[in-house]
Amino acid sequence: MKAGKLLASILVVSMALPMCACKPTSSKETDDPTGKTSEKKPTGTVTTDTEVPTDSSDGTEPSVTPSVPSTVSDESTDPLVIYGYDKDFEQVLADYLTDIEYEYVYVDPSSYTQELNNAIVLGEKKPDLFMMDADNLEAWATSENSLGIEQVGISRAELSDQFQYTYDAATTNDNSIKALAFELQPAAVFYNRAEAEQFLGTADPSKVAPMVSSWDILLEYAREVSMNSEGAKKLIADRTQISDVFWAGHTSSWVEDGAVKTDSDFDKYVTLQSTLYHETLTMDLPVGSTEWQQAVSGGQCVLFFASLKTAADVIGYVPGHKEEEEPTTETSAEEAPESTTTPPETGWSIVPAPTPSFDGGMWLMVASTCDRKESSGKVLRMFTMDQTILTELAVKGQFVNSMSIMEKCAADPNFTSDFLNGQNPYTILVPEAKKIAVAKDITIRKYAVAEIDKLLPAYYDGEIETLEELKELFTVGLSELLGLS
User: Fold this and answer.
1) d(Cα 265, Cα 437) in Å, to the nearest integer?
2) pLDDT at 8
3) Which residues of the chain have pLDDT under 70?
4) Contact by Cβ (8 Å): 389, 182
């Protein structure tokens, strides 16, 4: 199926994108003079007067959805100002945002959130729209520096084809959705087929998947790999990455009735991490470090957790739609003789992780300084709802925020990957993306997990003698951090 056929199969009606003579302008701030795209994530924090959030809710969602005004209009004729940390997005805007005059302000990821905050509070060039990454999304969603999508005329009902976790992650306590996702990064397990064949006894995804279907089973196979290789190889390169995936499945509140609480996941996590440490079942390499990437790509470990975008950075996966050549009648069996030997396993394959999770993504948000609300609403719809645009982006390899389009990609044989030994990664990732659950207190979870991880070395060394003592110290530490009495 060619890309054009995929477009036709997804879209019931094809509409040409409106065109006009408006030309975009671009402002480069703290631009890399080499022209290379930075892979760094935005850093810094949004400046607000709020303290570390505490969870005082009763666990119920507000029943009232913020109302959408019947009409939304632009209050200015100035170019739409869009702030971002991704240079590639500038080309996306140039390709599709052809009927709205705009200015894209690029800011280096290393200073992005601070400069964005300054632009909103103090700057002369105030943003209408801006992009945000997963790490800083909640802070900006709870900030007064952002507006809810209803304020630019978008209702919750319009999001029925979007993956739920993407707007749950940006939903405030008063049920306002503060951001819509443009690019998704659901994660799964990528494993080295040659290493899996040697140390797990199989490279078949249908047989490897059960081996990583739960944390208890994964632990068993971590022992098996270490034993079979006499400690030379490990199932995974680090314990840290397990932390991110493990807690993605924890949606219970860390604070109840004004007090810190722990549950069975706390015990399971501590036991898992302690076992990995004491039995030396990982390589203890910092996630994302040069050593970690070399261990993954060089076969020192069997698998790692990643989205397609992360896999592209670490092991060179190339996403996208594969254009198959039509078979010719001239091909004969003599030109492709059958091999009498089984070739060695090479390449990579993908299976679900024990917990559905995501390791990044890009959201679009409306700034409190926006004076072009009608145009901002149109841009949000274009890049998170327009089926023509999203289909074209999906064909190029982007995981877009449309369940219907990504389901079509999962069913399209032209998305199979030679890199993944003939697998279509979307058959794994689309169901996983649908199952991702987002905790209501993501920021508190970050503080809680950091507090646990801070205490674990003392627990490993015996300075903290029991699990109960660890819980007590954790409760005291997190309570002080959150300002709970």
Assistant:
1) 15
2) 54
3) 1-41, 43-63, 320-345, 485
4) no
Sequence spans of domains, the chain: 3-50+68-186+359-435
CATH superfamily of 3-50+68-186+359-435: Periplasmic binding protein-like II (3.40.190.10)
Q: In the structure encoding, which two tokens stand for residue 185, read together?
A: 């990064």
256-259: which pairs have CB atoms within 8 A and are 24 or more residues apart? 256/55, 258/54, 258/56, 258/484, 258/485, 259/479, 259/484
